[in-house]
Structures are given as C-alpha cells and as structure tokens.
Amino acid sequence: MSMNRVLMSSAQPVHSWDEPAGIAPRGTLVLLPGRGEHGGVYERFGRRISADGYRVRALGDASSDPEAITEAATKLLRDETHPGPRVLVGSDTGAAHAAQLAALGTPGLDALILAGLPTGPHPTETDTADWEDELEQRTACPTHRGRLTADEAFRRGALAAPTALESPALDGISVPVLGLHGAEDTVSPLDAVRRVFRGLPGAELVSLGGTRHDVLNDVTHRTAAATVVLFLERLRLDSGLAPIAVTEDLR
User: Is residue 246 part of a domain?
Assistant: First the structure.
C-alpha cells in the first residue's frame, strides 16, 4: 500500500506517495498545490495515482514562497533517481506556476498537467471571507469539504486573494500539455480557459461535468485521476500522445 511520507527538500515539506512494493515505477509526478493548500491535501489523488505505478511528490503553495517551490520542483525534475517521464502537475495558482516553469524550459520536464488553471485576477463578486462560500466555490465533494474544514494547515480565505495574472499564456511550452477543468468552475470559468488552451496547438483540455474549481478533489475525482493515468500511459509510449484505447466506429 502506498503511504503518505513527508520529506524535506530545501526546507520545503514534500508529501510522497510511491508505487506499490514489487512494481516497477512508471514515472514521476511533481505536484504544485493552489492557494491556501499544502501537499497533504492531495493524499487521495496521490494514493490513487501511485497505485498505478507512478510516484507522486507534492510540494507547498507556490504563492507563499515562489522561489523555494521553484527550487524544490526543479530539483525533483532533475533527479534522475526518479523514473521518467517526469510530469509537472499544478492546481489553481500551482497550475499557473507550473506553466511558467514549463515555458522557461525547466530541465527534466517531459509533460505538463494543468488543473483549474486561473485565467486572471479573482472575480470581485466572489471575494469573500465566508468559509461556506469558499467551500461552495472549491468543491461539491462532501469528503473533501470535510477534510478542508478539519485541516488546520489549510489556509482559509486564500482563494479570495488575487492571482496576479492578467492573462496566462501557454506559448513557449514545448512539452505535451493536459488541462483538467471543472465545467461548473466559477473561480476560473471554463470559457476563458478554452481561449487560453486554444493558443497552444496540440494541448488537450478535458472538462468535467458537475465539477467546481478543485478539479482533482471534487465529486469527479476518480474520473480526473483516470484521465491523468490515461494521459501518462500515452506519454510513456509516445511523446506525440498517440491514442491507445480507440472507440471503434460500428456504423
């Protein structure tokens, strides 16, 4: 069974989930959480992905200490003891930070997964210190809502903070990109995200119905994780992401 271990990397806590004993590792994911979050928030995601043979290393909120998170992420991606492909996963502002690292050509990076990518400053009409309102924006999953409510390390109210992004661009990114986004995301509306992804030929964007901003931890978290695994399996076989499972036309 994959266990959540907390290591330290350049004074940054790293939450780790490894492949099951006896299973050859299939790749490594370095995860950057969003506003107010920490790596432990992604335990459910980490356990599920690692069960399929992929190592997961989750760092902290990049908006709290960008330089330290960049250093830790870069070190993990360059570490050849971690099996490839090595994929940077970002959620919320972590996605924006991951996109910036990819655009800079960070060594060791083979692909990028952007979940709940913010498309600009947080809308003023949703700026609120009310916890129930924040939960409504984040997730409809009762399990995740309970976890966030009980998590003393989680920083409430962070979602109302501006992202300091005018209009994130994906140009300059040369690695394969998968986007995951909630169809019901009011923090970063899907229509705006579509426009951003259209600017990068070859990028894939998957929307999840009934899903809000915390796309990796919402009611469709199993489908989100399965979509990630399908992307990783294609990436392992072909950097061009040739399809593996093909629905046959029976007409």
Answer: no
Specify if 60 maps to a domain: yes
DSSP letters, 67-100, are HHHHHHHHHHHH-TTSPSSEEEEEETHHHHHHHH
Q: How many domains does the chain have?
A: 1
pLDDT tens column, 213-236? 999 999 999 999 999 999 999 999
Encoded amino acid at 53, one letter: G
Cβ atoms of 54 and 233 closer than 8 Å: no
Cβ neighbours of residue 147 under 8 Å, at least 6 residues apart? 41
Question: DSSP letter at 134?
Answer: H
pLDDT in tens, 32-52: 999 999 999 999 999 999 999
Cα 181 from chain centroid?
10
Pairing relation of β-strands 12-17 and 177-182?
unpaired
Assigned domain for 137 exists: yes
